[in-house]
Write a structure and sequence with these properties.
alpha+beta, Peptide Deformylase, five-stranded antiparallel sheet, 3 helices
């Protein structure tokens, strides 16, 4: 799998609900976990690998036992506010402070269709919120302060020019 880079249009689309929980979905989730790990990421949403479905994978620690797959996630509640530094695999080498809820309750399904309800806080809550935004077509640059947007503008322009020259928004992770 390749990670899709900004400004690929799929990153701005709302992802469709997953309706089939089959071997193909489980294979896709496994490939996303591998891609995320290879890229040294902690989260990856399906649109970031060119798929318009509501699927995300996270692993806040990088340890296999902490890997999590969320299908059709819905954030049911948010509490508190914490500002922290974020990056994104679709925006290589761009980092900024972003405000997120300190804790969340998320309901989803696992890759077999089994319902999940998770209460997350701290780093894990931040990752799920960031990846959930991808499913809604919202990018972390949309949540940056105006000052950070100005600071990263040249890097964003470089990504836009790269896409225009190569006609592709993907790289091998």
């Amino acid at each position: 799998m390749d990670v899709v880079l900004y400004p690929d249009p799929i990153l701005r689309r709302t992802a469709a609900a997953v309706e089939r929980f089959d071997d193909e979905l489980r294979s896709t989730a496994a490939a996303m976990h591998e891609t995320m790990a290879r890229a040294k990421g902690v989260g990856l949403a399906a649109p970031q690998v060119g798929l318009g479905i509501r699927l995300l994978v996270v692993n806040p620690t990088g340890k296999p036992e902490n890997a999590l797959t969320l299908v059709n996630p819905v954030i049911r509640s948010k509490r508190g506010e914490v500002v922290g530094e974020e990056g994104c695999l679709s925006f290589p080498n761009i980092w900024a402070e972003v405000s997120r809820a300190g804790s969340i309750v998320v309901e989803a399904q696992d890759e077999t269709g089994r319902p999940l309800r998770l209460e997350l806080d701290g780093f894990a809550a931040r990752i799920v919120q960031h990846e959930h935004d991808h499913l809604e077509g919202i990018l972390f640059v949309d949540r940056m302060s105006p000052a950070d947007r100005v600071r990263v503008k040249s890097a964003l322009v470089a990504l836009e020019e790269r896409r225009a020259k190569k006609g592709s928004g993907a790289f091998s992770a």
